[in-house]
Write a structure and sequence with these properties.
With 468 residues, the protein is α/β, with parallel strands linked by helices. It has 15 helices and 15 strands. The chain folds into 3 domains: 73 residues, Orthogonal Bundle (Arc Repressor Mutant, subunit A), CATH 1.10.10; 124 residues, Aspartate Aminotransferase, domain 1 (Alpha-Beta Complex), CATH 3.90.1150; 241 residues, Type I PLP-dependent aspartate aminotransferase-like (Major domain) (Aspartate Aminotransferase, domain 2, 3-Layer(aba) Sandwich), CATH 3.40.640. Helix 2 crosses helix 3, helix 7 packs across helix 11 and helix 9 runs parallel beside helix 10. The N and C termini lie far apart (48 Å). The structure holds pyridoxal-5'-phosphate.
Length: 468
């Protein structure tokens, strides 16, 4: 068994022991040394499992004394999905999103960029892109790339995804300018103005913006932070309204970070077939998975109706602006729409990325990044448990953010301006829904290295919460 999974096994074993009251509230868990010996595990694995339990508020580490049970397991509540389903409506996205983007602070708490070294993966990428630039010859600069994008890069994306159970021919891929562009092409290809599109709720605000621009109607389907879109609710939606497409993120979608179980994925595909709708899979977070990258929904698509959209923005760099789309039965139309919306992509960037992947640097970068993300996530969760009032936090197994549900009276939209005065940019819950639900929720990112300015920013937010 890959060592990646051992800490999860130990975590589950300890959790069960607490649930079965083998160790009661206030009692000490076996020491790290005992756990290493009895479970035949390394010290790092045992410490990791204990830190995860601590991050969930179940145990408390006391210096030189060990770990003690600090909460009854039933007291650790998870954010709940809401089950109310509103009729389809026109999306109207708050200007707040624009404000956050103008501050260049999506996925960050700080409006000012922090100094620091480039991660080794980005250094290697820059070298590959530099090489690609130097290899430009003669009259290359006088020609546009073909609409589908660089074949070498499409081949690398094909190879990379084959390990996840998805066999895609390079001919069925089209390179885009990021995942947002891919989602735009997907919606344009399979919907017409006024059509109804089902989305996760809470779900990605970027999709809501596209739906607003394309004048599509939105129906929100309750989505849990553990298992993703609620398939029973989705079935109810399909029985009540004619839905043309559904946008889902089965792997660690933002903000909840859920991993959709295989049974739910199959149910989704069956419903799509029965009601003849397009599924637009946003796969952008899959490669951040902390324990084994899940197969895409697309790998189960025997009916050619799942359009997969993704990019390198979350697993490598947002600055590359390279993504891809596999358009299923709409692929031809998508190629044409790519031509209309972008004409062509930059060839040296694509060739640089292909070189980076072919040389093995991408895989090495992903391995490093996962370890850093897990450590950042655990630190963030432990920190949030010290916030005042009621705080329920997700523990995602991938992605870049946690979803925090605060005391019911908290209004995160109203807090936004006050937080800005304190030099902190927050991402209020209502941004993730067209019906402005989730007023007492916040998405908080762990994408950035854990530094003193960021933990200070979180403390300032905690003080603001206290004043609410
Ligand atoms: C779920 C999701 N999809 C798509 C995007 C857009 O990605 P890109 O930078 O590749 O356009 C984002 C960015 O935040 C996202 O969170």
């Amino acid at each position: 068994m890959p060592s990646d999974f051992l800490y999860l096994e130990l975590e589950q074993w300890l959790l069960k022991g607490i649930q079965d009251q083998r160790w009661r509230l206030g009692e000490r868990l076996p020491s790290i040394r005992t756990l290493c010996r009895e479970q035949n595990l390394s010290k790092a694995t045992v410490q990791h499992a204990l830190r995860r339990l601590e991050a969930q508020g179940l145990v408390e580490g006391r210096p030189k004394a060990g770990y003690f049970v600090s909460l009854k397991p039933e007291a650790v509540k998870k954010p709940q999905s809401r089950s109310r389903i509103a009729a389809p409506r026109q999306a109207a996205v708050s200007d707040l999103f624009l404000d956050i983007m103008q501050r260049s602070a999506a996925f960050d708490l700080l409006p000012e960029r922090q100094e620091g070294d480039l991660p080794p993966g980005v250094v290697a990428l820059n070298r590959s892109v530099g090489r690609a630039l130097r290899r430009q010859r003669g009259q290359d600069h006088l020609y546009y790339d073909e609409p589908a994008g660089d074949l070498g890069l499409r081949e690398q994306i094909t190879l990379h995804n084959a390990r996840r159970g998805w066999q895609v021919e390079p001919d069925m891929l089209c390179i885009t300018s990021g995942c947002q562009h891919a989602l735009f092409l997907a919606l344009m290809a399979c919907c017409e103005r006024g059509d109804v599109v089902a989305v996760e709720s809470p779900g990605f605000y970027g999709v809501l913006q596209l739906l607003e621009q394309l004048q599509l109607q939105v129906v929100e389907v309750p989505t849990s932070a553990e298992t993703g879109m609620d398939m029973d609710a989705f079935e109810q939606v399909l029985e009540r309204w004619k839905v043309k497409a559904c946008v889902v993120s089965p792997a660690f979608g933002t903000p909840g970070g859920a991993l959709m179980p295989v049974a739910a994925r199959r149910q989704l595909l069956n419903l799509a077939e029965r009601h003849n709708l397009a599924i637009i899979e946003d796969d952008i977070y899959a490669e951040t998975a902390f324990v084994g990258v899940p197969d895409p929904l697309k790998a189960l698509d025997t009916d050619n109706r799942v359009i997969l959209c993704s990019s390198f923005s979350k697993c490598l760099t947002r600055d590359l602006r390279l993504g891809w789309i596999s358009g299923a039965r709409w692929h031809g139309r998508i190629l044409h729409l790519k031509l209309i919306t972008q004409l062509a992509g930059s060839r040296f960037l694509q060739k640089g990325m292909a070189d980076f992947m072919a040389g093995g640097s991408f895989m090495a970068h992903l391995r490093r990044q996962r370890n850093e993300l897990v450590a950042n996530r655990d630190r963030l969760i432990a920190f949030l448990h010290s916030w005042p009032g009621e705080v329920r936090v997700t523990t995602p197994q991938g992605g870049l953010a946690v979803w925090a549900e605060l005391s019911p009276h908290v209004d995160t939209l109203a807090m936004y301006a006050h937080a800005l005065e304190e030099g902190v940019v927050m991402t209020p819950g209502p941004l993730f829904s067209v019906s402005r639900q989730f007023a007492n929720c916040l998405r908080i990112s762990f994408a950035h290295p854990w530094t003193a300015p960021r933990s200070d920013a979180l403390s300032r937010l905690a003080r603001l919460l206290n004043t609410q």
